[in-house]
Amino acid sequence: MEYLTNQNKNLRKILDSDETLFEENIVLSKVLIDKSSPYLKSIIINRGSKSGILKGMPVMDKDYLIGRIVETNYLSSRVLLLNDLNSRIPVTFGKDATQAILKGSGGSKPILEYLPEGYVVEEGIDVFTSGKDGIFFPGSPIGTTTKKGEVRLFSESSQLSFVKVDLSKQNKEAF
Fold first, then answer.
1. How much is the pTM?
2. For residue 45, what is the enclosing H or E element?
């Protein structure tokens, strides 16, 4: 009974968190399997091509980007998380809109790469997608910077139960 009560509370939080959930370009999905290894971070969700999901689509936890679809089947899909060793996405941050690549480290905090020469990363600056890749919309929140040039993600990938897949990039098959 306690499990069902907690799951019901989590679903209510998701439904209350964002009204765009009811738009036809968002698909709510349950996390089926959390494939965690020392360096590879991905999840399997219970939605696939039957629901209109294609490779490359962004995946969100509430309003925070957590990864992208890298494989689809008819009823399920695999999501490559931002902290996976193979993940790389263009980001922007700071008052001067500094551009960088967010590279998964295999740990809990991805690393900022390809910063301007001599750039010193300040702690506590919000990091967003830049949209330069044509896959992610610009301005999706990801996390905040640390002094070491890492990014503390807004969403804890080990605690995911339900995620949202943004179908609005359907016409663009990526990767």
1. 0.81
2. strand 41-45
